[in-house]
Write a structure and sequence with these properties.
Elements lengths: L3 E2 L5 E2 L6 E7 L5 H14 L3 E6 L2 H4 L15 H7 L4 H13 L3 E6 L5 H6 L5 E3 L7 H8 L5 E4 L5 H13 L5 E6 L15 H9 L2 E6 L5 H8 L4 E5 L17 H18 L11 H7 L2 E4 L14 E4 L10 H4 L21
Parallel strand pairs: 3-4, 3-10, 4-5, 6-7, 7-8, 8-9, 9-10
Antiparallel strand pairs: 1-2, 11-12
Amino acid sequence: MQPIRINDKVSIGPGCPVFIIAEIGYNFNNIEEGLASVDAAADCGSDAVKFQTFRAANIVTRGIEFPPEAGGGNQFAEFKKYELSAEAHARLFARARERGMVPFSTPSHDSDLPLLEGLGMEIYKIGSDDLTNIPFQVETARLGKPVIISTGMSYLSEVACTVEAIRAADNEKIIVLQCLSNYPIKDLSEVNLRAMNIIASALGVLVGFSDHTTTISAPAAAVALGACVYEKHFTLDKKIPAPDAAFSADPLEMGTIVHTIRETEAMLGDGLKCPARSEVDMRRDTRKGLVSLRPIKKGEQLSLANTSIKRPGHGIEPMLLQLVLGLKAGQDIPGDISITWDMLR
């Protein structure tokens, strides 16, 4: 699979740094908190900030409650409270770009797309709640931008249908995130990071992880298993009275996550097994080679009686011992030194 280009500076995929998303969502109660959250995400080293674009009337009926694992409460009332104006979108996006990050959002309805297109959005995110909303997926895909899809609550067959629909809309720029729709995740055995491998293999797409855990091991494990995108809910302060703030990463945690991901991807390397640059001297001086047990006269045959295998590895490699035994010394060889091919005949 080839990397997906987001803009002139950012690509996602093989050979590229993990694309780290701080999902601010609606973890703020006024525009100043929102702007401060953008600045904090940039200071943590995030590559992108993501918001949520919706109108309550377009996303949910009035009578439905959030399930207990999502904190409870009336869905319509919450979404209505946290609707973002066009002006707020513009200011948040502008600040993110000033700070060198990619700003984008999760739309929830066809009517959200013109606003985001007008802001020059370079990549779209589709939430788990819209995974099977194929008409909406297709409308978003037709914009021609890369699409990141969360897959909480889904079967592989449903993910496959969505990917097929996006491809049928002439969009191959697809990234699928393993996701567990619990907030936060209490049972880590349900995270199922290996699902990324199945998704990548079965559907031929880039994969990543949308993290609702509260453990630092999750980002490292996800990156080690091949995630090229990592997304984490982010808040300026866990005490902000916003629905997602309590289980989101604060600046200290997000900074640690970014550092952990960068360390992990550095350790993964390119997969080729060969000595590292830092091992060159160690290889030469701590490996073993053929040495003389005692002085060997010119013309004397080499044998187990006058040779041994010891450090350093400056001489003939031990694996060639049987080729060496019986050969004659081409010169006087002092005792306890490495034996090299130019000493023999």
